[in-house]
């Protein structure tokens, strides 16, 4: 992209209405929609052919994950801006997008101006990941990564019915030991009870 050329943006989403809305917004903002794709296969073909300055990609595509597209791009380009667009509230998806090499992560429920702003900032710093809630997500992910193998086993047992005593017996440990692990899990996941631990664990793809 030259200093005077309008940034080119490829839109990847299987919903025409979503693509249409973003296309109008970026064109008003002085950017060029160089193409649209409704699937992973179409996206990879157009990216290879058109080499856009930025791509806006949905996390969920009919023939695969948008993260596959992100990873493919990063293998071939370190300078292309990649904005992941999704309906997902899960922090694990945000972390996965960052790890795959995305530049920004925006929810579809966000104002369209937020999408345009994410594209602009990503064009300036394509390798600096930004997203609302990233600090909290990283803190939660870091907490989960410090779970010991035994704590992870205890955490996963919580989704089964039964009392602490029942679950302890199923793991062949004493109830006191089970409660000790449970207290450590609550502290690391920053939750107060069993339901909170299960909800947080599911959000982090630990269950």
TrEMBL record:
GO terms for molecular function: DNA binding. Keywords: DNA-binding, Phosphoprotein. Residues 140-205 form the HTH luxR-type domain. Pfam families: GerE (PF00196), Response_reg (PF00072). CDD domains: LuxR_C_like (cd06170), REC_NarL-like (cd17535). InterPro entries: CheY-like_superfamily (IPR011006), NreC/VraR/RcsB-like_REC (IPR058245), Sig_transdc_resp-reg_C-effctor (IPR016032), Sig_transdc_resp-reg_receiver (IPR001789), Tscrpt_reg_LuxR_C (IPR000792), WalR-like (IPR039420). Residues 8-123 form the Response regulatory domain. GO terms for biological process: phosphorelay signal transduction system; regulation of DNA-templated transcription. This is Unannotated protein.
């Amino acid at each position: 992209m030259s200093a005077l050329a309008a940034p080119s943006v490829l839109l990847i989403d299987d919903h025409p209405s979503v693509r249409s809305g973003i296309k109008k917004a970026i064109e008003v903002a002085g950017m060029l929609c160089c193409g649209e794709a409704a699937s992973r296969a179409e996206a990879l073909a157009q990216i290879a052919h058109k080499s856009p300055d930025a791509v806006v990609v949905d996390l969920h595509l009919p023939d695969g994950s948008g993260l596959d597209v992100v990873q493919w791009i990063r293998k071939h380009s370190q300078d292309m801006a990649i904005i992941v667009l999704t309906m997902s509230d899960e922090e694990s998806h945000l972390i996965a997008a960052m790890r795959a090499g995305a530049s920004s992560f925006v929810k579809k429920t966000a104002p369209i101006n937020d999408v345009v702003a994410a594209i602009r900032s990503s064009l300036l710093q394509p390798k600096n990941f930004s997203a609302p809630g990233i600090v909290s997500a990283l803190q939660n992910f870091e907490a989960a990564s410090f779970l010991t193998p035994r704590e992870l086993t205890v955490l996963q047992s919580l989704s089964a019915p039964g009392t602490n005593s029942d679950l302890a017996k199923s793991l062949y440990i004493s109830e006191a030991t089970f409660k000790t692990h449970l207290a450590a899990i609550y502290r690391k996941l920053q939750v107060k009870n069993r339901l909170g631990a299960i909800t947080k664990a599911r959000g982090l793809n630990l269950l």
